[in-house]
Amino acid sequence: STLLEVRGLTASVKETGQQILAGVDLTIREGEVRVGSSWSRRLQFYWRLVIHAIMGKNGSGKSTLTKVLVGHPHYEVTGGTILFKGEDLVDMEPEDRSLAGLFMSFQAPIEIPGVSNFDFLLMAVNARRERSGLPALGPLEFYSVVSPKVDALKMDPKFLDRNVNEGFSGGERKRNEILQLSVIGADLALLDEIDSGLDVDALEDVANAVNGLLTPQNSVLMITHYQRLLDLIKPSYVHIMENGKIIKTGDSSIATQINEGGFKSIALV
Ligand code: ADP
Ligand code: MG
Ligand code: MG
């Protein structure tokens, strides 16, 4: 089924009215599980994970698209539709979009003074559990959930006591975003340049964590300039954005082509 269906989306900077998105069309389906039987008549399950990537020159509107999808207050939707799991997102509060299963990592994540990472994650998880009618987790119970994920991302456990994003290095912020995603979970995660500012080892840890989160029921939309991220998290679809529109969609061979010959090497038919 379809996770995200964007049609003719136009959006402007609220303060100035300057149009940034000029009619975006984008469809993201969840992965698929199929049951079939093999020649030996044993039941077999087939599944396919779905990963989308958006590439495009600086200033083409990639970050704005993701911000508009999560309801960033600086932008106003002026036309078109955004359906997420069949629900119209346009008039929904950012918090409700997130509770509905849309996750975003910001290119420049915000600091939240006075709230520790641990408390922030616990609040986020319990808000989702409450929505699903599940009892809240206590701190000890939650610690046993979050601790292995901190280890998997090779983060210092002390990091849970620090305030959200306060004084984090670029790399720590990126790992923290992925920790949030792995603890909170999402049906669709929008990851904006999670590769920026990460060295090769850190990028591998982050990519492994993202790959480990993928199931046939969810999907990831990654934004990147660089092939190296797409070598680690292999996209099923690559979209090229230019002047506030998606002008081409194809498979991962597009990314290779851009890597070798630049954006000018892509034939825009
Ligand atoms: P990308 O992520 O593809 O590099 P952005 O979405 O960040 O591009 O920006 C697209 C264009 O919109 C750029 O020209 C940028 O300067 C402009 N823009 C985005 N947000 C704002 C804003 N809040 N105010 C003014 N201009 C903006
Ligand atoms: Mg940019
Ligand atoms: Mg950007």
Automatic annotation (TrEMBL):
Record's keyword annotation contains ATP-binding: yes
GO annotations of cellular component type: chloroplast; iron-sulfur cluster assembly complex
Gene Ontology BP annotations: iron-sulfur cluster assembly
Keywords, ordered alphabetically: ATP-binding, Nucleotide-binding
Domain ABC transporter: 4-268
Domain of life: Eukaryota
Parts forming coiled coils: none
Nucleotide-binding listed as a keyword: yes
GO molecular function, one term: ATP binding
Name recorded for this polypeptide: ABC transporter domain-containing protein
Species: Zea mays
Positions spanned in the full protein: 53 to 321 of 321
